[in-house]
Amino acid sequence: MKQANTFQFIVKELSEVSFSDSGYDIKGAAFEYFIRATLHGKKLGQYFTPRPVVDLMAGLTHTEAILNALLAGTEVLVADPACGTGGFLIRMLKDSLNQLDIKLANREISQATYNDIASKLSKEVFHGSDANESVASAAKMNMIIAGDGHNNITAENSLSLDASIWPVVQENGVINESESGKYDYILTNPPFGTAEGDALSKADSMLYPVQGGKGQHLFLQRMILATKPGGLICTVIDDGVLNTETGVELRRWIMQRAKIIAIMQLPEVTFKPNKINIRSSVLLMQRRENNDIDLLDPDPVTFINLKTLGYIGTGEAIRGFSFMTMRDDLIANALNHEMGSPREGEYWHAFDVSTICIATDNTSRWDSKYWSPEVVLQTQKLLASGAVPIVDLNILETKRGRSPQKSTYVDAPDGYAVVVKAGNVSRYGVIEITDADWIEKQTYDEMPRDIRLEKNDVLLASTGDGTLGKAGVWDHDERAIADGHVTILRVNESEIVPDYLADYLRLGFGSDQIQRLFTGSTGLIELTPDHVKQIVVPLLKSKKEQSLLSKQLRDAEQAQIRARNKAEFSLETSRDEFWRASMKESIED
Asked: pLDDT tens, 330-344?
């Protein structure tokens, strides 16, 4: 690579290749594949937003307005402050140039106008930055291939207050919000982690209006501050920002300064081809002309649940799926309030919630599952019919257990008490302790008394994908405690049968409420004790009816288990008989 004739050969070969007659999807995919294979150091999967997500976000923001504004003589600025290899910027640049070509071909504009607007598009409109210098360099090259003639890509930590992409205006050590707006559009997928925020100086961190939180929290604040009144922001967002208690102040600060237009829940497999397993959404919002400090805006927020992007977790395309058909349908109809709420297409479902309703909720949550019309309405009906929240049934303070130090675990023969974990609660409502961890008497005695289990305690697994929501009744004779991932419910048995409550939580409408209330975005999702307290339970006509209903369910489950075991035994027997019969002659010989 240090030999001049090597570069001469490369230039000669490339000079024979036309980049203008190949679609962006082909070039972008090839270029990003090259980048993935050659850049080293930081894991780069976070930088590549799947092309279907880019297409949907560009469509939701109607970025064709960029060209219309330029043709009307209005300056337009577009930014991606965490641009990776430039996917959003390239998409918008190529779309704008293609639209311009069509207008020239249709004689809607003159050649002089074409040349002027094309020059602005390639030199002035699009700006990006990335904290990783190698990735920023890749974005520059990718933009040049796409037709950018004056690259506005920088390598910098865009969360720093002096970042060139969106410098803030300060007065007396305070950010001037009204003077910091620069961009008409921000489309981005900022890092979900903390690296960029951790790299800030203490002085920079203290100037952010909402303190604390991950780098993503800071990115959202900078997006708001850097957008002109009326400007649009469309960003991928970690669902933890939408629903956790640590995000309440941030969410309310954003709603005061931006109108939340839509929140689109992405399919769980969205980032799995990049080996990233995280629940995420797309947030579309518009900077307000005037701040709504009292949060009195009555306009609706549209929640969209997207069923598929056209591929499975490996990245393999779903046969017969037309992404463009789905995209056009969603863009045309998901935000069309005249169609009523809820509304749906073949691959999406949408409903509206008043901004005031979200603002007056004590959590101000933005996750669609929390506002699910069906679950919210059914919960209200239960309360009206006399159903009781768990907080009124539990004779203990609703809380989780406590996890002992791993170093204190011993084998069962040496143990004094069982440690019940979420993994010990089966999906059939049984607490299994065959492979459970144990602790010695001294450790048990040091644990709080209210996490020591008693007969008929209902145990609710309260954390983690695959375990959250499992429930069972402690019916063993061994001493035991619950660990920090299990909520203990010691109910008033004069009002409710423990088995019925456990079954209601794992399979009844209690399960729907759990799925509505949990917070988080990765395998660390959780149901807090405060969430558990809110779960509403119908007591039916009597405890006898509760017992009968639960017994019917458990009898059916046991019958299913027996049938499955019998079928598996029969299958294994048949396989063995086949093997022996097919080998009989050889064995006899």
From this structure: 999 999 999 999 999
Q: Provide CB contacts within 8 A for 383, sequence distance 6+.
A: 389, 536
Helices (H), 393-490: 441-446
Q: How far is C-alpha 185 from the chain's CA centre?
A: 22
388 - beta bridge partners? 537
pLDDT per residue over 203-217, tens digit each? Answer: 788 888 998 767 889
Do residues 229 and 287 touch, judged by C-beta distance below 8 A? yes
Q: List the end-to-end C-alpha distance of the chain, in Å, as a whole number.
A: 68
Query: Cα–Cα–Cα angle for 493, 494, 500, nearest 5°?
Result: 50
φ, ψ at 323 (rounded to 5°): -65, -40
- State residue 44's pLDDT score: 41
Q: How far, in Å, CA of 436 to CA of 420, rounded?
A: 7
Kindly list the distances between the CA atom of residue 44 and the CA atoms of 49, 160, 281, in Å, as whole numbers in the listed order: 11, 21, 20
Q: What are the counts of helices (DSSP H) followed by strands (DSSP E) for the chain?
A: 20, 22
C-beta atoms surrounding 458 within 10 Å: 26
Strand partners, 155: 130
Tokens of 553: 């369910």
Structural contact between residues 82 and 233, judged by C-beta atoms closer than 8 angstroms: no
Q: Which helix (H) or strand (E) holds 188?
A: strand 183-188
Q: Is the peptide bond before 229 cis (omega within 30 degrees of 0)?
A: no
Would you tell me the crossing angle of helices 509-517 and 373-384 to the nearest 10 degrees? 120
Say which residue the tokens 């976070």 belong to: 46
Compute the distance between CA of residue 534 and CA of residue 12 in angstroms, rounded to an integer.
70
Instruction: State both tokens at 146.
Output: 């796409």
10 Å Cβ neighbour count for 542? 10
Task: Give the Cα separation of 54 and 47 in Å (integer).
Answer: 12
Contact predicate 198/160, CB 8 Å: no
pLDDT for the residue numbered 162: 85
CA 520, CA 412: separation in Å to the nearest integer? 34
pLDDT at 47 over 60: no
Q: What is the pLDDT of residues 345-383, one digit of tens each?
A: 999 999 999 999 999 999 999 999 999 999 999 999 999
- Strand 78-80 and strand 126-130: the pairing is parallel
For 552, list phi and psi in degrees, rounded to 5.
Answer: -60, -45
Element (H, E) at 419: strand 417-420
Supply angle C-alpha 350, 262, 352, rounded to 5. Answer: 45
DSSP codes of every residue in 463-496 = BSTTTTT-EEE---SS-EEE-TTEEEE-B-TTT-
**Concatenated DSSP letters for 216-227?**
HHHHHHHHHHHE
